[in-house]
Amino acid sequence: MTARHPLLDVQAEDPIERKIDTLQTFLGEHYFHDSGIMYSMWYWKDDELRPYSASDIRPDQKYLQTSAGFSPQGHNNSENSPWTSGWFLLSQCFRYRATGDAQALKYAVKAFRSIDIIYRLSEERGRAGFICKPYDWIVSEETSVDQYTAVMLALWEFFPLADGKTQERIRQMLREMADWWRNANYVLIYFERRYDLLPYHAARMACLNAMVFRVTTIDLYAKECERLLAMCDAWPTVFDLQLKRIMDAEQRGEAVRSEHDFESYDPDKGRYLFRCRQYPGEMYLGLACAEWFFRNEAYRAPLLKHVIARFWRQMQYGLRPDDLLALYGMEVDLKNGTWRAVRTQPTTALRENVLAGSIIDSYFSEICWGDSTSRIVDASIMAHLHAPEFCPGALNLASKMLRNLDNPRLHAIIDPDGEQLLPELVWQRDMLSSDVPAFTLLSYWRAKAFMESVEL
């Protein structure tokens, strides 16, 4: 049975404008917790659509584990709340720019309040600048670069629309966010594992510092922006970096080893085969920051035009041509720029080593990821806006994907034939995506805000 609900019913044959109205009303009127924080994901099976509850957690299923003991339902409801709030806020800022609609400003204020409430959870405990993942609607020790990217881009766009008091708050938040990461030496502790964010995430952090300089005129942040950008070279993607790593090893006559257990090379088929998960979707973060620099610091545009085009092309690794759904994991031929689906079985060692017990990362299948699919739409709009000569068909791709959008594609995990998820992960089929609704709005309103006339 196809999942349907009076609050959220999107059919492929619906006009795009109707889909936008449905998603906008749902997020703006129904997707905020009593605390004022936006939800991240909801339970959605057949005609049942609602926040997760303890009754949804089954003993025969496997859920993410947190060292602090937050509940699985709390994790699902609010794990990506800063992220969802940020993209919804940004979409409404673009909507207001395109239409001047008072409702857009109303929803923007609600989304900003969600971010501000989350921000205060850590701020009130002496950790200003730390944007936590608010599991169970309370402060946690977990964050990620993606949460910051969504929040900072949204705060920047909301700044000129806000009143004076809110502008001061945004100025404070952006500055404290930049200070937090600089003082932490750009090291992230995520589920008790250490990640050095530089140089891979240098462009994201440079973007944050550039914003702070523009709203404070404090030279420290301009200098930090340039220091970080100097690490970016030509803004390599993860695939560019892996290709260079292999070629450097080959030149030295060394064996190529995987950096992670869930990544692999097949020496029988060639040294340039790279198995990975989520990377095409994760690349959206870099593309979105490149787009910010393109619009706000025009002298960087000649380089960034090529960066945006390269990111857009590689984000399509894993995008199935038959149904335009993005695979969660795939094998990429780094030398030829091609990809293919691959299936493996999880081993005991891989099950035990995955982050926070996320056993979906212990094997490869043809699971499709709604989140990544929706990001490709907005990436295509940005590619068409800023690098159309290098991105033929970008607008057409975005339009086709928006026209295909329906209820099943609003889910986070899509199992095309019902055989791709492990038995203990089947609950993930019934999850509204934290990305698709907000990114669909963002793509549509970005196009309307920056193109004089466009039909999607």
Q: How would you characterize this protein structure?
A:
About 1% of the residues have low confidence. The chain is 48% helix and 7% strand. With 456 residues, it is mainly alpha-helical. It starts with 15 loop residues before the first helix and ends in a 6-residue tail after the last helix. It has a three-stranded antiparallel β-sheet with strand order 5-6-7, with no helix packed on it. Strands 1-2 form a two-stranded antiparallel ribbon. Strands 3-4 form a two-stranded antiparallel sheet. α7 packs antiparallel against α8, α12 runs antiparallel to α14 and α14 runs antiparallel to α15. The protein has two domains: 177 residues, Glycosyltransferase (Alpha/alpha barrel); 222 residues, no CATH class.
